[in-house]
Write a structure and sequence with these properties.
It is a single chain. With 262 residues, this protein is an alpha/beta fold. It has a single domain, classed as Spore Coat Polysaccharide Biosynthesis Protein SpsA, Chain A, CATH 3.90.550. The protein is 26% helix and 23% strand. It has helices spanning 18-29, 48-51, 71-83, 102-115, 180-190, 210-216, 239-246, and strands at 7-13, 36-43, 58-62, 88-91, 97-98, 122-130, 139-140, 156-159, 195-206, 250-252, 258-260. It is globular.
């Protein structure tokens, strides 16, 4: 019997190259789950010439850029999907792409849990890494075991039962936007969501981190890496701002990562 779950894939984009954006778009178009809708949200720099070839994509254009690691456009796209009645939302950064069975593998786990009387709020996929220009690589995502505490943004999916978190990306304070995926993971733990992992590496993650170049045995570029984005995470973030925006009380320790407080 065909699945009745409607799946949204939300992609924020900023200034990515057209070829990178097309790679992302094509990966969503080729999903084997039949009811998959792609929401593409331009963070102030729309590329209508690219979208002309993708009439089925729901293109949302924000009039000004936020440049906060996709948090604002990601949250707005997810809220649009929620309002459109989507059952599941997946998040896919524009420089990453999906294997064809990604949405289907998530839906299969949601439906299996629902049939067993133990519905899930979130299902996570796994990922393999490659560095720009080396898509043939299948680097292991070290330190991300199935059932672990960290999930990359592009591996996260949420059900409508967690609808209150679909747009929470918009509320993440700017100073911790570089670790927005970790913040979302902490929020899911804080709210005790029922989660499961597919155990399938259906996300292809383009890594601009130095460790991935070293893992691949390639020279580390002098520039263009993401490593520097973590230098000032959490700087001047007050407990009051965290409470006002996310309604949580977290203490930030060294080297800048927050820890949920019981």
């Amino acid at each position: 019997m065909p699945s009745s779950l409607r799946v949204a894939v939300v992609t924020p984009y900023y200034k990515e190259a057209a070829a990178v954006l097309r790679r992302c778009l094509q990966s969503v178009r080729t999903q084997t789950h039949p009811d998959t809708v792609h929401y593409l949200v331009a963070d102030g720099f729309p590329q209508p010439e690219v979208l002309a070839d993708w009439p089925d994509v729901r293109h949302v254009v924000l009039p000004n850029a936020h440049a906060n690691f996709g948090c604002t456009p990601r949250g707005i796209g997810a809220q649009c999907a929620l309002a459109d009645g989507m059952d599941v939302v997946c998040f896919l950064d524009a420089d990453n792409y999906l294997e064809p069975a990604h949405a289907a593998s998530l839906v299969q786990l949601y439906e299996r849990a629902r049939a067993a009387g133990t519905p899930l709020d979130a299902v996570f996929a796994s990922r393999t890494l490659f560095v720009p220009g080396h898509e043939y690589l299948r680097l292991a995502a070290a330190g991300e075991p199935v059932g672990g505490t960290f999930v990359d943004t592009s591996c996260i999916s949420l059900a409508r039962s967690a609808g209150f978190l679909w747009g929470a990306w918009c509320q993440i304070p700017r100073s911790i936007a570089p670790i927005c995926d970790r913040v979302m993971c902490w929020l899911m733990q804080h709210h005790r969501l029922k989660v499961a992992w597919t155990g399938q590496p259906t996300v292809r993650y383009e890594s601009n981190w130095a460790f991935s170049y070293r893992q691949a045995g390639l020279p580390v570029p002098a520039g263009g890496l993401h490593d520097d984005t973590l230098q000032h995470v959490g700087r001047d973030l007050s407990p009051e701002e965290l409470w006002a925006l996310l309604r949580v009380r977290w203490a930030f320790g060294q080297p800048g990562a927050p820890a949920p407080q019981p």
